[in-house]
């Protein structure tokens, strides 16, 4: 390692650096999770679904003032594709669809709460 390349320095034994760096390292996994929750409405949707076990799209739209139907639909689709929420289609007419957290989405809650605690403890 070049002595001026300090961005590659990881304070763990050389053999364990792949835990942090590389294609399967921590950076890749943390970046993946951030991508899953990135977006103006994804966190509000997730927290709303933490509070209520199952919700219809219209109720979510009412509870998230300012979100458009198009953006809400896109964000719900992305969250479902990433496995954080589940879309339940009841196959009824008129159409009835509800969203709920998946098991993976429920497992994310302690991480988000830890992030909140970190933020609160580091206020300027």
From TrEMBL:
UniProt keyword terms in alphabetical order: DNA-binding, Transcription, Transcription regulation
Domain HTH hxlR-type: 20-124
InterPro entries xref list: HTH_HxlR (IPR002577), WH-like_DNA-bd_sf (IPR036388), WH_DNA-bd_sf (IPR036390)
Single Gene Ontology MF annotation: DNA binding
Domain of life: Bacteria
Protein name, per record: ArsR family transcriptional regulator
């Amino acid at each position: 390692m070049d002595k001026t390349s300090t961005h590659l320095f990881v304070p763990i034994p050389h053999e364990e650096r792949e835990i942090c760096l590389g294609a399967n390292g921590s950076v890749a996994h943390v970046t993946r999770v951030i991508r899953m929750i990135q977006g103006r409405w994804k966190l509000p949707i997730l927290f709303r679904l933490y509070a209520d076990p199952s919700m219809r799209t219209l109720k979510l739209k009412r509870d998230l003032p300012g979100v458009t139907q198009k953006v809400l639909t896109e964000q719900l689709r992305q969250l479902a594709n990433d496995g954080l929420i589940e879309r339940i289609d009841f196959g009824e007419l008129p159409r009835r669809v509800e969203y709920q957290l998946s098991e993976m989405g429920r497992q994310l809650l302690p991480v988000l709460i830890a992030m909140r605690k970190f933020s609160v403890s580091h206020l300027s």
